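**Archive record**
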Amino acid sequence: MSQFFQIHPDNPQARLIKQAADIIREGGLAVIPTDCAYALACRVGDKSATERVIRMRQLGAKHNFTLLCRDLSELSIFAKVDNTEYRLLKAHTPGAFTFILPATRDVPRLLMHPKKRTIGIRVPDNAIAMALLQEIGEPLMTSSLIMPGDELPLSDPYDIRATLEHQLDLVVDGGFCGFEATTVVDMTGELPEIARQGVGDASAFAG
């Protein structure tokens, strides 16, 4: 049975943020709000929780997981990026973008694309997600809350609890935060390429 925390979307209660962070630190699998939609989240490198996500979403081996970061200072630990790419990322974070980048050796193999060895990196523009990241002190592994057979992610915290309460340890209710995906920008080629058009304005990456 999952815990259910109602956290204020603009002024997250520090006590609840700490309790949520403790659940995740101890190996819990959580659903948290972001600036685009609710997402599954656990500690980076938590094999058991990650495997629960893979089973729940019926993901294939080539799925690109995303690391949710507080800011770009954490980027160099998990991804390789040159100065030009870094400036482009800085201009579009925080926000509704996921950037696909070459992964470093610090990324657990379970999280990266097996052949391309890439990882998604994202800095959310959401007060609850940022407070959680700050409290935990490290990035979170995240995955969209799109269930098998669905095209859109689950968006209502009460529906999420009713549907998944026996498969989760925590549901954070941060109110409505949308149900559209991020815009995914593949930064592994010579030029940035839009891999998925989502909420983020991709015009800056055109051409």
